[in-house]
Amino acid sequence: METMLRLDVRRRGAMSGVLTLGSLDPAFAGCAGLSGEPVVLDLRSVEFVEPAGLCGLAALLEHAIPRSEEVVLLLAGHDVPAYLERMNFFRLFGGRVRTNIDVAPLQERRRHNPGTLQELVNFHDEGEIPAIIERISEILQNQGYLLKERVAICSTLSEICANAAEHGASSFGAYAAVQAYHHIVSGARRRGEEVLVAIADGGVGVRKTLSRNPAHARYTTTDNDALRHALKMGVSATGELGRGGGLTLVAQKAAAAGGSLSIRSGSGRITVYRNRKSSRNVPPFPGTFVRVSLPRHLPPERA
After folding, report:
1. Domain 113-303 falls in which CATH fold?
2. I need a surface site. Which of 63, 118, 183, 283 has the fewest CB within 10 A?
3. What is the domain class of 1-112 according to CATH?
4. Long-range contacts of the stretch 16-19 (C-beta < 8 A, 24+)
5. To the nearest whole number, what is the mean pLDDT of the chain?
6. Which of 81-95, 166-180, 240-254 has the lowest mean pLDDT?
7. What percent of the chain has pLDDT over 70?
């Protein structure tokens, strides 16, 4: 008997039809009880995929595939399958999942490089990170970010990737994806441009990682306590000098631009905006997930 993994895709508002990490919560919950049976993941309600949804989907499949006889993805339309192909999803998962549509014609198309995206990439160690960061820097440059902005963003994103590789040790490592949009994806469709960065790992999570260091143990009563502590400057699980600034600096940079940083681990989620920081309890995520929104508002002549 097969297990159907369902999504919670919004049908109203600015994020209607968008695959986000939150959309996958019911599927992660269903995945936890798998014991070898075939699995069907229904993506037919999805109309648009952003990097966070893509990395979340990759993490979900990495948990579902070893626990099931077969994983089948149900897709609808052309846009979503074409986007998944363009973001290298089928190169990473095509031989590991079955789909209800023939994706071979998509894979045979000639591609062009629009200079606006880092395809879904899987990495396991710090030696793989420079190539990812170089690509992110190119995307930021194409979007008009100044050199000092690119250096600040990329140096801190590099630390986040390093944390994912170091503390997210798992059978599948970590995934990253980046895309620049000529419109605002997060929230209301106001005028402007936006770069979205997503990184997901399958490690033990922030709370357990910090609790290994006695200096941080008292800040790890809950997942949200651990996340709040991790967002303080200088906090790192190892206590090394020069480490522990990545999340804080990226949050500050994103917030100053009118964007946000959201970090999720275990049953906790914290999102940092310009004027506030919100935390909430959420369904458990097996690992750590970071999403960064970097908007750029268009000058009047381009608006």
Report:
1. Heat Shock Protein 90 (3.30.565)
2. 183
3. alpha beta
4. 16/47, 17/45, 17/46, 17/47, 17/48, 18/46, 18/47, 18/48, 18/49, 18/50, 18/53, 18/185, 19/43, 19/46, 19/48, 19/49, 19/50, 19/53, 19/54, 19/56, 19/57
5. 87
6. 240-254
7. 89
